[in-house]
Predict the structure.
Amino acid sequence: MNNCRASIPACCTDCHMTQRLTVLGIETSCDETAAAVIERTPGGPGRILSSLVLSQVSDHRPYGGVVPEIAARSHIANLDGLISHALEESGCQLHDLDGIAATAGPGLLGGLLVGLTTAKALALAADLPLIAVNHLEGHALTPGLTHGLRPPYLLLLISGGHTQLLAVKAVGQYIRYGTTIDDALGEAFDKVAKLLGLGYPGGALVEKLAATGDSDRFHFPRPLLNRDACHFSFSGLKTAVRQAVDDLGSLAPADKADVCASFQEAIADVLIDRTTRAMVLFARHFPTVRHQVLVVAGGVAANAYIKSALAGLCRNRGFSLNIPEPSLCTDNGAIIAWAGAERLAQGMIDDLDVSARARWPLDLDAAPAPGAGVKA
Ligand code: KG4
Ligand code: ZN
């Protein structure tokens, strides 16, 4: 992926590579309005000077999922104030910044337009470079912000909107090993929670109940296990859960706990199988990388059961496991500011006519997954 249409002169790029950069990041791709200011130091981890996230979860809860129109209106109502507060808290004024970054996709188009248009206006007014960030690149580069970790490494992205395995080769360069052909993993957790009447968003609620349940009680399918490619499919698993719930009729608390535990175990088995396969591909593509790292990002990375399964896998396969802290795994402005700073450091900036895009794969050369729906 290299969407950069404008570029800064080579001499300035050299300065940017070695300079500290301070960047404002704006995130409005889904149901969080977020703004943050970060400082990038070459080589080292970054510093978060401020990071504010306004969750719209309570606005969407009555509908059991994100309503795009409500999300866009809420971004409009809150973004300007949030940016002012983020700047104030960081101690920076607009003229102290080196660039303005905003998520330009993938995501809900209405929300993306709110954030990107605001970023364009600020960049124009303050005569600063604009960086249009791929939201997935924000997640992918987070370990640079938190730990100073730079590519190449293997990434498992498991969120409410995406489920992908990717090799992060360099800033703007990705190899997609696998993606979901139907639901995202967080979406599958949310749908199971809804079936059990647990509430929205349901991932953490499913995890909590699963801790008291018997994972051997239901034998749910493990879709696409042992396939050569690293793709995922969760809709069959969700249907099997619905069937089990229907068969039970009325649900006692212990039944719900057993369903959650059995579901979560099936998910962990699938993640381990697919990630093992991706580790083999990564080792083949990057034979000279001695210190192999698996990065896990996205809201589902908060799940302790999944974390511990992946930790076991990493121990067995000689990988280090890097999971950013939960507040940086879920959507926020700091990861967008960081990805923007990393791009800016390499001279990857965008023209003011850059478009928002609902779909925007990180690996533009990846063949569509067989049987895939619309998810990138
Ligand atoms: O990354 P995220 O905050 O938003 C997106 O960009 O999609 O992920 C939210 C998703 C939701 O589907 C939520 O149910 C799920 O992450 N989630 C969890 C847990 N905490 C959040 N899923 C499983 N276990 C958890 N502990
Ligand atoms: Zn996200």
In short: The two ends are 13 Å apart (CA to CA). Residues 135, 139, 159, 331 surround zinc ion (ligand 2) (CB under 6 Å).
